[in-house]
Structure formats: structure tokens, C-alpha cells
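Hi R.,

As promised on Friday, here is the backbone we talked about, encoded as C-alpha cells. Could you run it through your design pipeline when you get a chance and send me back a sequence?
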């Protein structure tokens, strides 16, 4: 239905705003098209010719065939092409004049960003501005992820030989043992494994493969993590300050080691066995770090993930954005997953590093609730998503209870028996993890590590899942 003069008067009564642009005549057609492009890239709006912007007086203008051709020509410079109905409204006070009105629909997430004469525009309140390059590229990337996503681009600095084959075999084994990969993956060539994960193009690894499995970070500055322990509650003084480099699995291990180094331990003694865990649940911290590594914007090569431990809190900051459907306010509500790097997320899922997509926040909350720790909060700050855990105010290292249910002799015997079981399990599988040993024997991974510390003839060679156990002969 065509816009009437009464509807036009109602539309312009509040003057120009984010969704309304007024021009006196089509002599300002080019400038008007900039605003039209901005409407298309923001929330939509009306572009109207024939109304004085300040006085809001409806003047109209003469409309000729040439006028209509100029408007059509101007609209043709919009990319992608738009189908806009141009309305011509008679002006009662000026019978030979017409107001020209065009309505442009707003931009929706996943659409290609619009340009006029090759330049993108967007609205900042009522002002039309050129769209920043990073905003334009992000929208372009989201509109055509197969073409523009960083993780899908061939690696510029690595080839297949640059990837850690032992690490790949290790995580494949985890996926097979836990039922997410076929047994055939254990013996397939590395190239075939990577191909099934869609991590290669021809014989060239994609950036996703490099992020997951590279042995050498080389020119990839984004494969760096900042780790800091500050004195007090601000950044004025360091206790520890590190920068570590590596693939996703290496960085995950480094982050967890840093937490174990600087966070207090909670201990519970059962008999003579001390079961220890971090003041903030390790599983919650691990999930947040994994989310950061999985969903960060790797194309922002000059930014890095940061972990900061203060006296009162822990902050994990990730260079990235929340999906448009998720905000810091609703993130705790059930939601489906919107992985920023779906290729990386698929590998982490198939190797059991992450569980069902979209359930990470739920597991973080459950882990905190189980330990009686405050749930974390999410904020967006300066291009980073920041997750903050408050540290418990009491000295949890003193929160030790005793439950002596068996006599000393039996406890010592159980300790010796567990040592023997651990050694036998390692001899059976030199690639077994401490987490798997803990699950096998019904104890925590910290208990396993404490027992291993008493057995110097058993040592771990290498790092992460690319390493293995060695058992030396005892004299």
C-alpha cells in the first residue's frame, strides 16, 4: 500500500533519527544513497526526498523521467542489488511536486554486507558513517563462512610435516576409546584422518589443522597465551608473568598447569589418602579455557588469550565476540551452540575434549555448584569476552576433614596396592593419561599424580598427548 501524505506527516514529525533520513531534493541523491546503504547494514529505515530536514516542511520536487532514471541508476550501484519500491507522493500545497520515499529493510545476521560504489556504510545513531574494516570483514566472513573463515584458509606457513603426528594419534585414540571415532582411524594415514575432519585442501593443511596440531608456531602470533599472577587486585605488580606458545592442546596444558601453580588446593583426607582439588573447580576452568581456544577470532593475529589471577578473582579473556543470539545476560539459559570455528570445534568434540555443543556453560555451572563456589560471570570488553571467577574468601587450604574409617595397616596396604595398579596400567598402555587412570581406579587425577611423584622410576617424556610414559628398571 502506498504511503499517504498523512502517514508521511506522522513519519517525519520527530525529525531525522537512526531510521529516517530527510533530503530536500534529489540533488543530494548520492548522499542519500550513502544513507540507504547504512539503513541496509543496520536496522533499516526511510529515505525521503522533498522534505526540508530542519523545518520539516513538505515541499516535494518536480519528478521527470530523468529523475526516475537517476534514482534507478543510483540504486544499481548498491551491492548486492536491492529491490526497493520507490513511492511518489503528491503534495497538496504544491500540485506539481511530489515527495519521493524509499524504505530499506534492515540487515540480518548472516547476510552479505551492503556497499554503495564499493564502500560499506552503517548508522551510528542518526549519523551515516563508513563501516570499519573489521566490522565489514566480520560480516562478510559470517555471510560466506566456507569462503572467508580463517580456519578454512590454507595455512601459509605450514605443511603436513609441520603437524605433530604423535599428538594427532593420541587424540584419535581418545576419540576411538570413547566411541566418537571409528576403530579404523587408529591405523589410517594421517592425511586420511585430517581429510575426514576436513582439515586439508589437497595436500595442504588448513589453518584449523595448524591451530590444533602444529609443532612450531612460526609466524602465527595468535598461538600465544598470556599468563599472569598479580599481587593484590590490580595489575600494578606481578608475582608471575609468562607468555607461552603452542597449538591448542599445548596451550590448554599450560593454562591448567598455571592454575595448579597459583591457586590454593582444597584437601580432604580419607584414611591416609589425601584427595586434593583446586579452590575453583579445575573442570570449570578447563571448560572456559577450551571455549576460548575453540571459539576465539584467530584472524585477529595481534591479540592473544589472557589468563590473569588476582587475590580476589580469576579472569580469562578471549579475543572474540558472543554469537548474536547470546548475551552476558542470557548466557546461563539453555541454548544451542554457535561455534565460531566449527572445524576446530568438531575435532575437539570427536576427540571428547568438548561434550555436546552448547552444554559447556551448563557444565561450568554444575561444577561450581558441586564445590559450593560462586558461578562465573561473562562480560564483553574492548573486543574481548571475559569470564570472571571470584576466588573463595576463606583459606581453603585449611578446609581439611578427616574420615578415618580403616586402620593404619589397611590404609598403607591400600596405598601400596594403588601404586602397583598404576604401574601395571602404565606398562599395559604407555600413552594412558592421568585422567584415565583416575577414572579407572575411582580417584582424582591429583591422587594419581601424588602417587606417581613417589615412583621416580616412572616418568613422562614429552608434553601433553604427544608424550608417553617410561618405566625404568629398579635396582
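Update: got your reply. Pasting your designed sequence below so it's all in one thread:
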Amino acid at each position: 500500500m502506498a504511503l499517504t501524505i498523512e502517514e508521511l506527516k506522522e513519519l517525519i514529525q520527530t525529525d531525522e533519527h537512526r531510521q529516517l533520513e530527510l533530503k530536500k531534493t534529489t540533488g543530494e541523491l548520492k548522499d542519500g544513497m550513502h544513507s540507504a546503504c547504512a539503513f541496509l547494514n543496520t536496522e533499516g529505515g526511510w529515505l525521503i526526498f522533498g522534505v526540508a530536514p530542519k523545518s520539516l516542511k513538505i515541499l516535494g520536487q518536480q519528478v521527470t523521467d530523468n529523475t526516475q532514471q537517476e534514482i534507478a541508476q543510483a540504486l544499481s550501484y548498491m551491492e548486492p542489488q536491492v529491490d526497493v519500491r520507490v513511492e511518489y507522493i503528491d503534495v497538496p500545497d504544491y500540485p506539481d511536486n511530489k515527495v519521493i520515499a524509499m524504505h530499506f529493510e534492515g540487515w540480518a545476521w548472516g547476510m552479505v554486507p551492503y556497499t554503495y560504489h564499493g564502500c560499506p556504510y552503517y548508522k551510528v545513531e542518526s549519523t551515516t558513517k563508513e563501516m570499519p574494516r573489521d566490522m565489514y570483514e566480520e560480516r562478510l566472513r559470517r555471510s560466506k563462512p566456507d569462503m572467508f573463515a580463517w580456519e578454512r584458509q590454507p595455512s601459509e606457513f605450514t605443511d603436513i610435516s609441520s603437524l605433530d603426528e604423535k599428538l594427532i594419534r593420541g587424540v584419535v585414540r581418545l576419540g576411538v576409546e570413547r566411541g566418537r571415532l571409528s576403530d579404523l582411524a587408529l591405523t589410517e594415514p594421517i592425511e586420511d584422518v585430517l581429510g575426514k575432519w576436513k582439515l586439508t585442501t589437497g595436500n595442504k593443511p588448513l589453518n584449523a589443522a595448524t591451530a590444533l596440531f602444529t609443532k612450531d608456531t612460526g609466524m602465527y602470533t595468535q598461538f600465544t597465551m598470556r599468563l599472569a599472577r598479580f599481587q593484590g587486585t590490580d595489575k600494578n605488580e606481578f608475582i608471575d608473568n609468562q607468555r607461552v606458545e603452542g597449538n591448542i592442546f599445548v596451550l590448554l596444558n599450560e593454562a591448567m598447569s598455571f592454575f595448579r601453580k597459583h591457586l590454593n588446593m582444597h584437601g580432604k583426607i580419607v584414611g591416609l589418602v589425601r584427595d586434593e582439588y583446586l579452590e575453583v573447580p579445575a573442570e570449570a576452568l578447563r571448560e572456559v579455557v577450551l571455549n576460548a581456544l575453540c571459539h576465539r577470532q584467530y584472524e585477529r593475529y595481534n591479540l592473544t588469550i589472557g589468563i590473569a589471577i588476582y587475590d580476589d578473582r580469576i579472569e580469562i579473556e578471549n579475543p572474540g565476540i558472543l554469537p548474536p543470539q547470546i548475551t552476558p545476560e542470557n548466557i546461563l539459559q539453555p541454548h544451542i551452540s554457535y561455534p565460531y570455528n566449527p572445524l576446530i570445534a568438531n575435532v575437539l568434540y570427536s576427540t571428547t575434549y568438548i561434550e555436546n555443543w552448547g552444554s559447556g556453560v551448563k557444565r561450568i555451572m554444575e561444577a561450581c555448584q558441586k564445590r559450593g563456589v560462586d558461578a562465573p560471570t561473562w562480560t564483553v570488553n574492548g573486543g574481548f569476552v571475559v569470564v570472571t571467577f571470584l576466588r573463595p574468601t576463606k583459606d581453603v587450604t585449611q578446609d581439611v576433614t578427616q574420615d578415618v574409617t580403616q586402620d593404619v595397616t589397611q590404609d598403607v596396604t591400600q596405598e601400596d596396592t594403588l601404586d602397583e595398579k598404576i604401574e601395571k596400567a602404565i606398562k599395559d598402555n604407555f600413552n594412558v593419561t592421568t585422567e584415565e587412570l583416575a577414572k579407572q581406579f575411582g580417584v582424582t587425577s591429583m591422587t594419581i599424580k601424588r602417587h606417581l611423584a613417589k615412583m621416580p622410576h616412572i616418568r613422562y617424556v614429552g608434553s601433553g598427548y604427544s608424550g608417553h610414559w617410561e618405566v625404568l628398571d629398579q635396582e
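One thing I noticed while checking it: Confidence is low (pLDDT under 50) at residues 395-413.

Thanks again,
M.
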